[in-house]
Design goal:
This protein is mostly beta strands. Helices cover 15% and strands 40% of the residues. It has a six-stranded mixed sheet with strand order 1-2-3-4-5-6, with no helix packed on it. The C terminus is likely disordered. InterPro entries: Cuticle_Struct_Prot, Insect_cuticle. One of its GO terms (cellular component) is chitin-based extracellular matrix. GO terms for molecular function: structural constituent of chitin-based larval cuticle. It comes from Nephila pilipes.
Length: 124
Protein backbone atom coordinates (compact mmCIF):
# COMPACT_ATOMS: atom_id res chain seq x y z
CA UNK A 1 0.00 0.00 0.00
CA UNK A 2 2.82 2.41 0.80
CA UNK A 3 4.34 1.66 -2.63
CA UNK A 4 1.07 2.68 -4.35
CA UNK A 5 0.93 5.92 -2.36
CA UNK A 6 4.55 6.71 -3.27
CA UNK A 7 3.81 6.07 -6.96
CA UNK A 8 0.78 8.40 -6.84
CA UNK A 9 2.85 11.09 -5.08
CA UNK A 10 5.62 10.70 -7.68
CA UNK A 11 3.13 11.05 -10.56
CA UNK A 12 1.57 14.14 -8.97
CA UNK A 13 5.03 15.65 -8.47
CA UNK A 14 5.95 15.07 -12.13
CA UNK A 15 2.67 16.57 -13.38
CA UNK A 16 3.00 19.55 -11.03
CA UNK A 17 6.62 20.18 -12.06
CA UNK A 18 5.77 20.05 -15.78
CA UNK A 19 3.05 22.70 -15.37
CA UNK A 20 5.18 25.07 -13.28
CA UNK A 21 8.38 25.31 -15.28
CA UNK A 22 10.37 28.50 -14.91
CA UNK A 23 10.25 30.44 -18.18
CA UNK A 24 13.12 32.82 -18.73
CA UNK A 25 12.37 36.00 -20.60
CA UNK A 26 15.19 36.81 -22.95
CA UNK A 27 15.74 40.42 -23.85
CA UNK A 28 16.42 41.22 -27.52
CA UNK A 29 20.11 41.02 -28.32
CA UNK A 30 22.12 42.68 -31.07
CA UNK A 31 22.95 40.28 -33.90
CA UNK A 32 24.87 40.14 -37.15
CA UNK A 33 25.04 37.56 -39.94
CA UNK A 34 26.02 37.27 -43.56
CA UNK A 35 27.00 34.97 -46.38
CA UNK A 36 28.43 35.04 -49.89
CA UNK A 37 27.94 32.19 -52.39
CA UNK A 38 29.76 32.05 -55.72
CA UNK A 39 29.58 29.42 -58.45
CA UNK A 40 29.48 29.16 -62.26
CA UNK A 41 25.97 30.72 -62.31
CA UNK A 42 27.13 33.90 -60.54
CA UNK A 43 27.08 35.05 -56.93
CA UNK A 44 24.58 35.76 -54.15
CA UNK A 45 25.07 37.55 -50.87
CA UNK A 46 23.21 38.72 -47.79
CA UNK A 47 24.32 40.68 -44.73
CA UNK A 48 22.17 41.93 -41.87
CA UNK A 49 22.57 43.34 -38.38
CA UNK A 50 20.13 44.45 -35.72
CA UNK A 51 20.67 46.45 -32.56
CA UNK A 52 18.22 44.45 -30.42
CA UNK A 53 15.87 47.43 -30.13
CA UNK A 54 13.96 47.13 -33.42
CA UNK A 55 16.50 48.71 -35.78
CA UNK A 56 17.59 46.33 -38.56
CA UNK A 57 19.85 47.18 -41.48
CA UNK A 58 21.12 44.97 -44.27
CA UNK A 59 21.60 44.15 -47.90
CA UNK A 60 21.21 41.25 -50.28
CA UNK A 61 21.76 40.72 -53.96
CA UNK A 62 22.99 38.67 -56.86
CA UNK A 63 25.08 38.89 -60.00
CA UNK A 64 24.47 36.30 -62.71
CA UNK A 65 27.01 34.86 -65.14
CA UNK A 66 26.12 37.56 -67.73
CA UNK A 67 26.80 40.44 -65.33
CA UNK A 68 23.15 41.23 -64.60
CA UNK A 69 22.93 42.29 -60.97
CA UNK A 70 20.53 43.48 -58.28
CA UNK A 71 21.56 44.89 -54.91
CA UNK A 72 18.99 45.76 -52.23
CA UNK A 73 19.94 47.85 -49.18
CA UNK A 74 17.26 48.12 -46.50
CA UNK A 75 16.47 49.58 -43.11
CA UNK A 76 13.61 48.50 -40.85
CA UNK A 77 12.89 50.51 -37.70
CA UNK A 78 10.21 52.60 -36.01
CA UNK A 79 9.73 54.46 -39.32
CA UNK A 80 8.90 51.23 -41.19
CA UNK A 81 10.72 49.32 -43.93
CA UNK A 82 12.70 51.29 -46.51
CA UNK A 83 14.73 49.84 -49.36
CA UNK A 84 16.96 51.03 -52.17
CA UNK A 85 17.41 48.74 -55.17
CA UNK A 86 20.34 49.10 -57.57
CA UNK A 87 20.16 47.02 -60.73
CA UNK A 88 21.03 46.77 -64.38
CA UNK A 89 18.25 44.27 -65.11
CA UNK A 90 16.72 44.70 -68.57
CA UNK A 91 13.35 46.42 -68.56
CA UNK A 92 13.92 48.42 -65.37
CA UNK A 93 13.95 52.19 -64.99
CA UNK A 94 14.51 54.65 -62.15
CA UNK A 95 11.44 54.69 -59.87
CA UNK A 96 10.38 55.44 -56.31
CA UNK A 97 7.22 53.38 -55.62
CA UNK A 98 6.02 52.86 -52.03
CA UNK A 99 9.17 54.21 -50.39
CA UNK A 100 11.45 51.94 -52.43
CA UNK A 101 14.08 53.68 -54.52
CA UNK A 102 14.98 51.80 -57.71
CA UNK A 103 18.17 52.87 -59.50
CA UNK A 104 18.57 51.19 -62.88
CA UNK A 105 21.60 51.13 -65.15
CA UNK A 106 19.71 49.04 -67.73
CA UNK A 107 19.98 50.07 -71.35
CA UNK A 108 16.59 51.08 -72.68
CA UNK A 109 16.22 48.65 -75.55
CA UNK A 110 12.85 47.83 -77.08
CA UNK A 111 11.29 44.69 -75.71
CA UNK A 112 10.55 42.00 -78.27
CA UNK A 113 7.05 40.60 -78.08
CA UNK A 114 6.54 37.12 -79.46
CA UNK A 115 3.23 36.32 -81.05
CA UNK A 116 1.60 33.22 -79.70
CA UNK A 117 -0.38 31.12 -82.14
CA UNK A 118 -3.08 29.01 -80.60
CA UNK A 119 -4.14 25.78 -82.22
CA UNK A 120 -7.38 24.09 -81.39
CA UNK A 121 -10.83 25.26 -80.46
CA UNK A 122 -11.60 28.85 -79.58
CA UNK A 123 -13.97 29.33 -76.68
CA UNK A 124 -15.99 32.48 -76.80
Amino acid sequence: MIAKILIVIAVIAVVYASHHEHHEHHHPQPYKFGYVVKDHHGSQHRHEHGDGHGHVQGSYGFTDHRGVHREVHYVADHQGFRATVKTNEPGTANQDPAHVKLHSDAHHAPLHHHEHHHHGHHQG
